[in-house]
């Protein structure tokens, strides 16, 4: 199973179009959205190309391929525009060989405040806008970074899971972080 991860679109149409283009090129079956999809949030500037209704329209074309969780900037009003569920605080993906990926935005659960995970699980979250793919103790911590507002001088990025490996990739194609799972 090949998965494509994006987080923190924050209503930016340009970023969303870039994500959808890379998703199409990746051959992934599932687009995992890790929250903060439509709203820019009160602490962030309004991004260039801010157009939440158009972002929703574009994402709705991929409804059958999306798994999404709610971010701290997402609301019930956003859900009214989206044709796929995105109001859950977390979800799970079950992989072959009993591997599990816990999906969340990162404001409730994250690397430092984990839910009950078993040894060998992974937690995938956004929120910090900082890419990460590494083993911490006995779990994988994975963050695809941010498409719209990357931080700490990282480029805009997305994530991939394929053949037992997590990767964070810049839109220029550089691997920013990776780890086996």
Automatic annotation (TrEMBL):
Its EC number is 3.1.4.-. CDD domains: MPP_YfcE. The keyword Membrane does not apply. SUPFAM superfamilies: Metallo-dependent phosphatases (SSF56300). The keyword Hydrolase applies. Residues 1-162 form the Calcineurin-like phosphoesterase domain. GO terms for molecular function: hydrolase activity; metal ion binding. Belongs to the metallophosphoesterase superfamily. YfcE family. PANTHER family: VACUOLAR SORTING PROTEIN VPS29 (PTHR11124). This is Phosphoesterase. It comes from Vibrio paucivorans.
């Amino acid at each position: 199973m090949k998965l494509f991860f994006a987080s923190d679109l924050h209503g930016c149409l340009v970023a969303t179009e870039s994500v959808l283009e890379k998703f199409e090129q990746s051959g992934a079956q599932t687009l995992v959205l890790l929250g903060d999809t439509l709203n820019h949030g009160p602490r962030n500037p309004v991004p260039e190309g801010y157009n939440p209704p158009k972002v929703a329209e574009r994402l709705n074309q991929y409804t059958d391929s999306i798994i999404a969780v709610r971010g701290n900037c997402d609301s019930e009003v956003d859900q009214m525009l989206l044709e796929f569920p995105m109001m859950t605080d977390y979800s799970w993906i079950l992989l072959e060989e009993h591997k599990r990926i816990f999906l969340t935005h990162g404001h409730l659960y994250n690397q430092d405040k984990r839910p009950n995970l078993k040894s060998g699980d992974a937690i995938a979250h956004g929120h910090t806008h900082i890419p990460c793919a590494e083993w911490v103790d006995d779990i994988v911590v994975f963050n695809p970074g941010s498409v719209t507002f990357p931080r700490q001088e990282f480029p805009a990025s997305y994530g991939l899971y394929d053949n037992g490996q997590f990767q964070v990739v810049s839109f220029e194609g550089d691997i920013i972080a990776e780890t086996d799972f």
